[in-house]
Amino acid sequence: MKRASVFAIAALCFACNDQPPTETPDVPVPKVEKAKVELPKDISDSEAAALIKTLKQEAAFWEKKGNEAPKDWLAWQHVAERRKSLARLTGSLEEYKKAEKALDIAFTRAPENVGPFVSRAGLNFSLHRFSEVDADLDAADRKIIKNNREIAHLLGVRGDLALQRGDLEGAAQLYDDSIENAKTLSTFARKAILKSKTGQLTQADALLEDALKAGISAGKLDIAWAHLQLGIIDLDNGRTDDALKHFQDADRVFSGWYLIEEHIAECHAIKGELDIAEKMYRDIIARTEKGEFMDALADVMAEKGNEAESKKWRQMAAQAYEKDITLYPSAAYGHALDHYLSEDPARALEFARKNVELRAGPEAKSALVQALIANQQYDEAQATVEEIEQTPWSTYDFHISAYCVATKLNKADRAAVHKEKATALNPNNFEENAKCE
């Protein structure tokens, strides 16, 4: 069921790290006193380390300002924005918790019908609390004066919501409207990702190149993010060498970001360069303590024949997932689901159903199909496949799953259709990936 790799990577976005960079209005950059800030291990000279240090100093600066001025709500918005950025850079759900606390204070202090609505909408989206996003977007829309970039951002987030809810046509229209208002890295990138999820890979690549051109004045992090998306499209469709080049481009633009490094490690694992992959995953785990990377390392160690070490990391991954589920279950279900597909299929199905309750789009339903297959519930899996087929969704992983369901139900014609669609996206290693065990 996996693509051609020696380890599983969660198909669902965790804390929306792979979503387009937000374009909330810039906040002032304060002059802060140099302070000792603890940096993640092994990246002290990187772009990521420098930005993490700055963001921590600025968060402390604005928190101090907020505590000194009891009626100041804007200071707490600034704290929240820094904490959200730190969560994105480090993968830490604890930073989201700090951002949420700061936003609560901001809204407590803000006058009626005023406050950081866009910031809170972004936080709730990142945490997959999609039902709580609309009201804040509506409040932001009621703002009398908005510039084109703000309008474009709001339209883009509404498009993201439509995509998560399964309205792909609505998402496409909102993304087009967003581009019409502002041709930015983020507006082009949103449309590109939708194209990549509907089998239009050439158009997706072209749009991401447009995104890079439009974002020439964007920050290094956002430019690196666009290179990362180009690599993900290649990786998801079997072009490992091309993917690695894009990931290395991203790393050259913005070094030390774990999200780039974990994709580089994945490429090395796929290519059989297991010692490199092992070293990279151990470094990433030391910084993030995230279960998905522990699972990836467990797969690498199994491939190297070290079953004891593999088992150890698999157990540690389970502990990490349980910690995240306790803190923010809605944000953790997707990653935990991927872990439990092989370790505890019944629990994976539980998480898959909860994930669909949060977002009933084809991505979540595709993950549900995988969980149903793992639990040998093929009739429901086929019904879910048919629901996804009513949309333009067309990814390699989905077609592999649909092929397996059809094979188990002896539907040779349906299996042939999905095999053809899968191999059109990725002609490599179909038989290996579609063992349907």
Account of the 3D structure:
This protein is mainly α. Among the domains are: 24-143, Serine Threonine Protein Phosphatase 5, Tetratricopeptide repeat (Alpha Horseshoe); 344-437, Tetratricopeptide repeat domain (Serine Threonine Protein Phosphatase 5, Tetratricopeptide repeat, Alpha Horseshoe), CATH 1.25.40. It is built from 22 helices and no strands. The protein has helices at 47-68, 74-90, 93-109, 117-126, 133-141, 148-164, 168-181, 185-197, 201-214, 220-236, 240-253, 258-270, 274-288, 291-303, 307-327, 329-343, 345-358, 362-374, 378-389, 396-408, 412-425, 430-433. Helix 4 (117-126) packs antiparallel against helix 5 (133-141) and helix 5 (133-141) runs antiparallel to helix 6 (148-164). The longest helix has 22 residues, at 47-68. It is globular and about 65 Å long.
Draw up the topology in text.
Elements (H helix, E strand, L loop, with lengths): L46 H22 L5 H17 L2 H17 L7 H10 L6 H9 L6 H17 L3 H14 L3 H13 L3 H14 L5 H17 L3 H14 L4 H13 L3 H15 L2 H13 L3 H21 L1 H15 L1 H14 L3 H13 L3 H12 L6 H13 L3 H14 L4 H4 L4
Helix pairs in contact: 1-2, 2-3, 4-5, 5-6, 6-7, 6-8, 7-8, 8-9, 8-10, 9-10, 10-11, 11-12, 12-13, 13-14, 14-15, 15-16, 16-17, 16-18, 17-18, 18-19, 18-20, 19-20, 20-21
